[in-house]
Each structure stands twice: as structure tokens, then as C-alpha cells.
Amino acid sequence: MDNNSPIGIFDSGVGGLTVLKEIFRVLPNEATIYLGDTARVPYGIRSPDTVTRYSFENTEFLVKKSIKLLVIACNTASSISLEAIKNHFSIPVIGVIEPGAKAALGSTKTNRIGIIGTEGTIKSNSYINSINAIRNKGTVAVKIKDHGTKYLDRYFKIEADGMVIFTKACPLFVSLAEEGWTTNDVARLTVKHYLSGLKKENIDTLVLGCTHYPLLKESIAEVMGDDVSLIDSATETVKEIKKMLSVLKLESKSDKIQRQFYVTDSPERFLLIGERFLGQKIEHIEKIAVGI
Amino acid sequence: MDNNSPIGIFDSGVGGLTVLKEIFRVLPNEATIYLGDTARVPYGIRSPDTVTRYSFENTEFLVKKSIKLLVIACNTASSISLEAIKNHFSIPVIGVIEPGAKAALGSTKTNRIGIIGTEGTIKSNSYINSINAIRNKGTVAVKIKDHGTKYLDRYFKIEADGMVIFTKACPLFVSLAEEGWTTNDVARLTVKHYLSGLKKENIDTLVLGCTHYPLLKESIAEVMGDDVSLIDSATETVKEIKKMLSVLKLESKSDKIQRQFYVTDSPERFLLIGERFLGQKIEHIEKIAVGI
Prior knowledge:
- The structure is a homodimer.
- Chain A is built from 11 helices and 12 strands.
- In chain A, strands 4-3-1-2-11-12 form a 6-stranded parallel β-sheet, with helices on both faces. A 6-stranded mixed β-sheet of chain A has the order 6-7-8-5-9-10, sandwiched between helices.
- Chain A has helices at residues 17-26, 48-64, 75-88, 97-107, 119-124, 126-136, 172-179, 185-200, 217-224, 233-247, 267-278; strands at residues 7-11, 32-36, 69-72, 93-94, 112-117, 145-146, 155-160, 163-169, 205-208, 229-232, 259-263, 285-287.
- The A-B interface holds A 38-41, 45-47, 49-50, 119, 151-152, 171-172, 174-176, 178-181, 184-186, 189-190, 193, 265-266, 268-269, 272, 291-292 and B 38-41, 45-47, 49-50, 119, 151-152, 171-172, 174-176, 178-181, 184-186, 189-190, 193, 265-266, 268-269, 272, 291-292.
């Protein structure tokens, strides 16, 4: 492992490509290996144990490829498995939660923040814990009350130290993004169903806590209005990656870099949807077996 | 294995519970073992190789439980893996495709049929092949043209021997059914997007070729109108199971039966969504490891 070793990135599928796209833009001289666990996507509906098992298997694969830094480009896996992976592997690891939490705290003026994500991310309370840790250096525990009233609604409200946080799981957003329905009438109506409750709570900052969600940004912005800042964890995470590479003096010295892709199911569907997520052609892709 | 051995049923998750519910109704004296592969759901977006690998692992688990008959209660797995499973295992196997295809042929008067299902089911052409095999005893091959115009649209039209078949993948239906949005405005609008093309083609029969879709029956019926018969593969498959048990003289002789459930991820989410699908409480559920 040296400066010219690749950055390893894994996600359950195509979602993490929004983070990879930002790496390409901000760190164009870095080699990358992206692993999409397409044989077991989505992670957002799975139990913590299963998400952690899958995350470990993905990390083991990437570590064997001599990566210099691991990026967990999936909010669900970052929420549930980041600490366990940090403790078990010796390479530096970055998740997508803390960068998003930091950015939300930097953005809010009214201390009223919304967080949206998959069921797994929302149930883990990872954003709340991260915001709390940043503000109180981890010393104050918050009490969380479930104010959900409807089936799978998972609408929480948390109050602590003058900060009010609302969280909401939006399971259909992933399917919409993958179907390419990001601005049509179904997308807009679905966004309204999920987010009009948050809108009424007068939040001024909304964290898009799933790497699929930036694709729905236009429809989300329309419902939330101009007064609400949308935090895209891809952008924030890549700022953090850049900083960490600089601190560790691990920046690439080469301009001859490779961008490799691995998937656990056949690449066909990944290419079809992924090239739209990434905004460019995907080459050097290979199907591999993980966790068998 | 004897008359009182259980019927084994597997599906990728909760969808197959629509078939199980019908087994409970029509064959109340049969013991059942249901396996939902919830750690790897959904199958509809996966490649044929992966679906077959998962289906084999599920079958091996059930065969070890001494089942007398296997039901593949998943259209995707039936479409892709039924023949391979029939060839490899010695127990009798029933899938959900042929019963649906037979019922569609029995229902249509105009010979214009629509088939909807997951990407995996539609791409496999399993219903077309099955309809063709029933009509022509498998001797005539049909030519299939892809008339899809939009991204992931997969709208096919097939003409053979005076029969016209239209197929369409409706990926969002699964997420809608699992979210419990089956008759709201988002559900109705999504149904319109997917099905108004089929409606214009004047089909008189529509096969709901995914075990999730019967939950959306009301919205689908509204868009298709009274002139279109909806074929629910659950109902048709259970008629076939009943017939096969009778032919093989394998009907249960006991009225003390057990209904067991196994899942590959933690049961929490399966119970939450599954009890709605099944319309009753789920007991005797256990998490097991398959294919690890």
C-alpha cells in the first residue's frame, strides 16, 4: 500500500456511484476500486447483523486489493457497520454519515434539521448520534421518541439542547431513482407524501441520507422550497476524503490511474443504471463472488 | 416423506405468502414450511445465474426438511430456475408460471393477452414460452421483438398463430406493495404509467405475473376496466397443487398440522409486512442461514 494505491469504495449497488462521481471530479488523479454488492442489494431493508456481515465481506475483498483508504459509500452500511469495520481492519475508513451530519450543523440557522434515508439508516439513529457527538463530544445521550403513526412511517422527532431533529424513512425513493423516475408526476407525488410532514415542521436543512436520493434532488427541492438547504452526503464525504488523504500524506503522485469496478451479480443491470448515476461510461468491470 | 410430510414453499421474501394464503384456504389440512430468502430479496432484478444459485440453496434447505412437494412461489425463480430444479431434485416441483399461462389461455376470448412481472420474469419470456408450449406442445418457436422505447420499459409484443401477447416489467409494484401503498394516489398513478399502453392494445386478459401484484389488484382493475380479466397466479397454482397431491396420492391424512416459517434475515420486517400479505398472525418463525 502506497500513495498510488487505489481508494476502495463499496456500496450495496449503484447508489455509491454518486460518491464515486464526486471523487472523479474532486480527486481526478486518484485510482479507485468500486465494489457494488448487486447480488444482495438493497441493504436498507435488512437487519443490522446481515448488513454488517455483508459489509465485512465487501471490506475483506477490497483490503486484499491493497487499497489505501476505504470509503463506505452507503448510508445504511455506514450507519450500522462503520464502527465494527474501523475496529476490525487497520486501514483508514470513511463513512458517509459524519460528513453529512457536520454539514447539516454547519448549514442550519434555526436548529431544525430533517434527515431522510432508508429504513435501516433511520432505525439506526446514526445521524442523530453523529450530530449529538459533534455538538457534545459524545457526552450527552438523547432520548428518542417514535412519533410514527402510520405503517412503516418511521417519523421521529428528537429534541436535545435546543436542537430539533426529524427523521423519516422514504423506501420508495430508491426504486424511483433506479427506475429513472426522478422528476415525473409519480416522483413528485411520492416526494410530497414522504416530505410534506417535514416541510410543516419548518426545518431549514434536510440531509439526503441515502446515496440514491441526490438523483431526486429536483423533486425534493420543489416540495421543500428555497428556504430549505439540501445536504448531499456525496459532496461532503469527498471533502472529508480529500482532507484525510492530505493529513495522512497519501495523495496520489501518479497521473496514470485505473478506475476498476466489481459487482457481485452480472454487470448488465449495473451498467444500465450505473452509467446514468455516474454520468459516464463504465469500463473495467468484472463479476466476482463475495461471501460464498 | 409420506402423506403427512409438509409442502415446502419458497419465495425471495413475502410475495409467496399470497400463494401460501391460498394453500391455507384450499388445503387447510396440509402442513407447510415456508422459506422467505429475505437476506437476498428481491430476485426480480438479479441475473439468471444468481437467481438459480439462490433457488438451489433454498430447495436444498427444504428438501432436508423432508417435504413431499416443492412449490416455487416466486415468478422470477419459477421463470428462470424451475427446469433446473426439476432436473436436479427428485421431489415433485410446481412453479407459478404454467398455472398462470393455462388460466390465461382459458380466459381469453380475443387471443390478446398481457403479462406483467419483474424484470427477471419478463426478460426470461417464461410466460410466452409456457403459453406457446401449451398451445403447440412445444413444437413452434415464437420470434420475439423488443418494442421497448424507453429506459427499462421492456414492453414487448409477440405474435404467433393468431395469438398476440404483450409483456411489461413493472418494477415499482413490488416496493408499493411492501410499503402498503396499494390503493393511494401514488399507486394509481404508477399503475397508469405502466399499464395504459397495455390497455390501449385491447387485451382481454392480464396475468399478474408476480406474487406481490395481487395486492395492487384494485388499482390495476381500475385502470384496466371491467372487460379485462385479471389472472392471479396464486389461485391457479394452488388448483395445480391440489390436483398433483391427488394424482400422487399424497394428500394429508392428519388434521394436526404445523405451519412453519423460515427467513434468512431477522424476522422483524418479514412479520411486519408478511402478516398483512397473509392476513393472519405468523408463528413458528426462525432465522436460518442459507448459502453461506
